[in-house]
Amino acid sequence: MADTTETLEDRLSRIHRALGDDRLDAVDAVLADLEPAEIALLLESLPPMARIRLWQRVPGEVDGEVLLHVHDEVRSTLLDDMDHEEIVAAATGMDTADLAEIFEDLPQQVAEDMLRSMDALQRERLEETLSFEEDSAGRLMRTDTIAVRSDVSLETVCRFLRWKESIPDNTHLLMVVDRDGLFQGTLPMARLISHPPEMAVADLMDHEVDSIRVDMKSRDVATLFQTHDLVSAPVVDESGLLLGRIMIDDIVDVIREDSEQALMNMAGLDEEEDLFAPVLPSARRRAVWLGINLLTAFLAAWVIGRFEDALDQIVALAVLMPIVASMGGIAGSQTLTLAIRGLALGQISSTNSSWLLRKEVGIAILNGVLWALVVAVLALLWFKSVAIGAIIAAALVINMLAAGLAGIAVPLVLKRLGIDPALSGSVILTTVTDVVGFMAFLGLATLFLL
């Protein structure tokens, strides 16, 4: 049993020391106490050479589960270290949905060998799962559902379950279908064993049950589980035919992946980015967004350059200029973060976006006026100039208003264009607040001070 009080940092230290001292028995002792997900986290936390050495010590019977829990990029490096027989053995016994998750990462020859090793039913289920979009309910669902008809007795259901000899893990509900396989409701296992055997399924089943369309987006499925407090849910096609079920543990993975994606995308990174990837590929990925940011910085610099004469004559403008851009950037980032969160949770639509826009304009005006007065007073005390105080106050109000508008409008426009707002929203917002802030401040100074 793993020590639940031991932190990841502690385990990493033990692994590093054991690998450094070549004490493989100590490595095996650490791994023996860990769950596959914990081993996956350790693998993701090691540099490439140490990662491969640790992977070679992972017991073969948990290889498949560990591969499911690591990020795609790490999984690719681990698969490269395995031979065909090891990969096929690791995938043996996997649930169809789990196998589909790693199947497309397998070398072509391994994938073909694996398909040949399956029976006709397994192959058909895998091909069906792979036919669905990657972020859909069809990819999440398990096909090991037990279905019974509503017109049979509980005794018949019990005989059917005994005949099967075993039932899928975490089966607390039986799916109820008609003769054509169309979903009708669910029968809780607790009712099956606590009511007289002569009663009919139809008398005890739940008819009002939330079913999930097979093409529903995984993020929407997660929202449904959260809002309806679901533990499991049936998956159906457009005609209502029962296809499988989704369990809460599958949804926990979706929520975790979405949170990681949002965090990484805010920095312009892929959620599958390997923290310990080699220097060159990591630098190449990050260079793209650094280049985009450089272009926007040059745009802001070009705006400043248009007011070179004003800056030459009034040093106070150069001193105070960053305040305008910084305040606008912070205000816009607050709005942008809330907007992205609202879009992720499905709280923002065409019906309420205009109200949100008006709200953010109101907030921008109130905060703009408040902090404009504060900055104006400080500028007056610092530079003894009422004109400079008034100009920076006006520029602050203008820029914070622009920041509020951009904070709502940018993610809405990006989503409509099919671009992830978390990935590029901050870059665009920073450009807007810098350009508007510099232009407003220096433009007003040119008009009224020169």
Automatic annotation (TrEMBL):
Sequence ranges assigned to domain CBS in this UniProt record: 205-263
Gene Ontology annotations for the cellular component aspect, listed alphabetically: plasma membrane
The keyword Metal-binding is annotated on this UniProt entry: yes
SMART domains noted in UniProt: MgtE_N
Keywords on record: CBS domain, Cell membrane, Magnesium, Membrane, Metal-binding, Transmembrane, Transmembrane helix, Transport
Assigned protein family: Belongs to the SLC41A transporter family.
NCBIfam families the UniProt entry points to: mgtE
Annotated SUPFAM superfamilies: CBS-domain pair, MgtE membrane domain-like, MgtE N-terminal domain-like
Protein known as: Magnesium transporter MgtE
